[in-house]
Specification:
single chain; about 475 residues; alpha/beta; twelve-stranded mixed beta sheet; two-stranded antiparallel ribbon; 16 helices; lipid metabolism
Length: about 475
């Protein structure tokens, strides 16, 4: 919950209890409570914005007014409460107070942890079209491959400006979460009020001559800023991060002119969508997306019309990380594009045209996995497997190929971390949306994020900035994770 929400809510709940418990309430104090409540409501509404989970709390502002009206027309009968009536009233007050406190906690305006690095964060978005590629997922033959790209970059710590919202069209995203991931829109009703630590179109910090560049590729059904928890921490440490929205494979794409590109399943659902022949082919498009974006980044570094990035991108030190299908794309880029020097795959099955050779990727590589993902069919019930549209023998055969592709992950001195008590989406922002999601999945989102962030910064600091590496001292079994090194 936000600060003013807490202050307003606690004041009103305390005032409600006082009005119920205290028999002789001075009119001046009741009027004072009403005035303070109204002022807090107005300040909260103007600064933070009102939202539906706070409606029960908003109604509490009327309670002093009701009491004042009742005191004017009170009679002896009204003043004489029986014991039963007092008990019933007290219980109702407790229930109402629980609802008043509970709704904002269950449906919060979530926030991101404060960045720990010495830099502030700026952000700018681009609409880039690859004129050399036709868009294969639209009915119009002339369409070219068009991508939304968001770049985050270091600014001076005291930079002021307009704070960037989490997503650029919250209503469209809330609908997409419902349509694509079948999550209730209610969970995403406060997306418009979620703020990041980034300042729109701020000036790039000149504290360093150049900053290493890291590409980010989301998961299938994901979006370019789905890992804001991770991106902000990286940028605060002195990196330029470039997030790609893979059109028609993302949750949704929203273009500057208002056009919306929805997720396109190509008629593939459930287990059918996960087949290697389909996913390997689809991944070719994602690899070409990443290569095109890198080409555009090079052009931006050489000739930025706004002057922001001119000569400030360290193109000799480019990294990449991705979640799920974006993690698979990262591995393909490591093997396919010499510009990418180091990469991280967060819980991504190794889809793609190329297999990791027995001797390894040949570049610094870090694999992260959720323990439930690595467990495969062992943790899947028969009902869950049936819901995917397959049988247990078929699923087990599928995982044989998954594990075979994982076999050389650590070869050549690379790393594989398995996080305990995590799920596939623990490597994204999603579980921050509501504790309901965390409780239903049995995960601790911020705990997982802390491990991910510490590891990500350590890995890229070493391989892109030449700083000492802490990972080697962490190899082995730990309470929250295990770490292997090849």
């Amino acid at each position: 919950m936000r600060t003013l929400e807490w202050i307003y809510l606690i004041f009103n709940v305390v005032m409600l209890v006082w009005l119920i418990v205290c028999r002789n309430k001075p009119r001046k104090m009741v009027w004072g409570g009403l005035i303070i409540s109204v002022v807090l409501l107005l300040v909260h509404g103007v600064i933070e914005g009102m939202r539906w989970p706070m409606i029960p709390a908003y109604l509490l502002t009327l309670v002093p007014l009701i009491v004042l009206i009742a005191k004017r027309s009170k009679s002896a009968d009204v003043r004489k409460f029986g014991r039963v009536r007092i008990i019933v009233t007290s219980l109702l007050v407790l229930v109402y107070a629980a609802v008043t406190m509970g709704l904002p906690l269950l449906f919060p305006v979530f926030s991101f942890d404060k960045p720990t690095g010495p830099y502030g964060i700026g952000t700018v978005s681009y609409d880039w079209t690859d004129e050399s590629r036709e868009e294969l997922l639209t009915s119009t033959a002339e369409d070219k491959r068009e991508l939304m790209v968001q770049i985050w970059y270091p600014t001076d710590k005291d930079t002021k400006g307009t704070t960037a919202t989490y997503v650029n069209d919250p209503k469209v995203y809330a609908t997409a979460f419902n349509d694509v991931l079948t999550l209730p829109k209610l969970l995403f009703s406060s997306l418009s009020q979620v703020k990041t630590h980034a300042i729109q179109e701020a000036s790039l910090s000149d504290a360093e001559a150049k900053y290493p560049v890291i590409l980010f590729s989301h998961g299938l059904h994901g979006y370019e800023n789905q890992n804001t928890f991770q991106v902000e921490q990286l940028v605060s440490q002195g990196y330029i991060v470039v997030g790609i929205n893979h059109t028609y494979s993302s949750l949704v794409s929203v273009f500057p002119d208002g056009r919306v590109a929805q997720f396109e399943s190509e008629g593939k659902e459930g287990f059918d969508q996960l087949q290697f022949n389909y996913m390997d082919k689809l991944n070719e498009t994602w690899v070409k997306d990443a290569q095109f974006v890198l080409d555009q980044v090079e052009k931006l570094s050489a000739n930025d019309a706004n002057g922001r990035f001119n000569g400030h991108m360290d193109l000799d030190n480019i990294g990449m990380f991705g979640h799920s299908f974006g993690g698979a794309t990262t591995v393909q880029m490591l093997m396919d594009d010499p510009r990418v020097k180091a990469g991280m795959n967060m819980d991504g099955v190794l889809f793609g045209e190329k297999r990791i050779p027995a001797e390894g990727v040949g570049k610094p590589f870090f694999m992260m996995s959720a323990d439930t993902t690595v467990a495969g069919t062992i943790v899947m019930s028969d009902d869950e497997i049936a819901a995917m549209g397959t049988t247990r023998p078929e699923a087990e055969k599928y995982y044989e190929e998954v594990y075979a592709r994982y076999e050389p992950v650590t070869a050549g001195g690379n790393y594989w971390m398995e996080l305990s008590d995590t799920k596939h989406l623990s490597f994204s922002d999603l579980y921050l949306v509501s504790p309901i999601l965390e409780w239903s999945q049995g995960v601790d989102a911020r705990k997982a994020h802390q491990i991910v962030n510490d590891t990500t910064i350590d890995f890229f600091n070493h391989y892109l900035k030449g700083q000492p590496l802490q990972l080697d001292s962490e190899v082995g079994e730990h309470t929250s994770y295990s770490l292997k090194k090849g």
